[in-house]
Amino acid sequence: MDVGLLVPHAPPMLLLDKLVEKRKGFSRTTSLIAGERLIGDCAEFYIELVAQTMAAAQEYEALEDGKPVRDGMLVGIDSFSFYELNPIPGKILEIEAALEMEFGPVKIIQGKVMFNDLVYAEGKIKVWEND
Question: Would you place residue 93 in the very low, low, confident or very high pLDDT band (cuts 50, 70, 90)?
């Protein structure tokens, strides 16, 4: 599914293309690397990819359940590691996000950014969702 239909972001802040897999507590998206999409340095870009991946999954679930779209935001970054900070334009990255823990409106997400199974970055983020 086109991620633009799921998240409130618009270009150039919309960094994802497709939601390609969604199951309970897990989602996978794709993002075509393009210069106009890179925000700040690649560390920030990778973190935002993970956050948008989870947002797309949450909104997909809301649509399936007939519930309204929820507001949310990235509120914390934990133990993120970066292995490749110079992605080559034209590559399509795969991003995975898995729900690790949920406490009220706060969720801890384990995320990974990859190209052809080579991990570019991985770590945990905290997001807050408004009910």
Answer: very high
